[in-house]
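User: What would this chain look like folded?
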Amino acid sequence: MSFFTESLIEAFKLIIHFDPSIYQIVWTSLKISLIATATAGIIAILSGIYIGISEFWFKRTLQHILNTLMAMPTVMIGLVLYGLLSRKGPLGELGLLYTQPAVIIGEACLIFPIIMNLTIGAVHSSDKRLKMTLQFMGASKYQQLAPLISELRETLVAALIYGFGRAIGEVGAAMMLGGNIQGVTRTMTTAIALETSRGEFELALALGIFLLSIAFLVNFFLQLLTEKN
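Assistant: Here's the prediction, encoded as structure tokens.
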């Protein structure tokens, strides 16, 4: 029996026997990613719809900036936030570095431009008759938000799911901002990196199975929404 096969069997045993260390890491990852997705999603969707229905001279430039931010390396986000949250940084007095809120902020910053860009694209591709009707009725930009959210709800949910999938798989910023502290900020991705380097391949593989399962579910729901549209 090969090393990988033996490790895979042991990994499934850890999962089946409900190893507390594994499920604590999984729960921490899910909690941080869900909060980050909800926080970034609310702001990004409202901002994205407002920008989508507005016309201003630097709108195209703003979209180019969002596209650039979508491709920004995660370690860069971690580096900037580390400088802001460290003791010598302008926000150091808040004591957020190496805490769950710091990781949440990092993941929220990572997925914010993604959700916002997808929202703007959804508004631009939506039925123009709805926007024309709302404008004809004299609805302000703020009054147009609710009808557009209702009209684009499936696309917006897909954007949130995509953002969550991106957040749950984040490792660079999570490692830099959270410090990979056991029981506090250790997520599945940071734990996989740590346990592999320590030779605990079975534990890393068990966490990898969870991460792969979550990725499968995320893509499954995205596919359902895409086919429905």
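The chain has a mean pLDDT of 88. If you want, I can go into more detail on any region.
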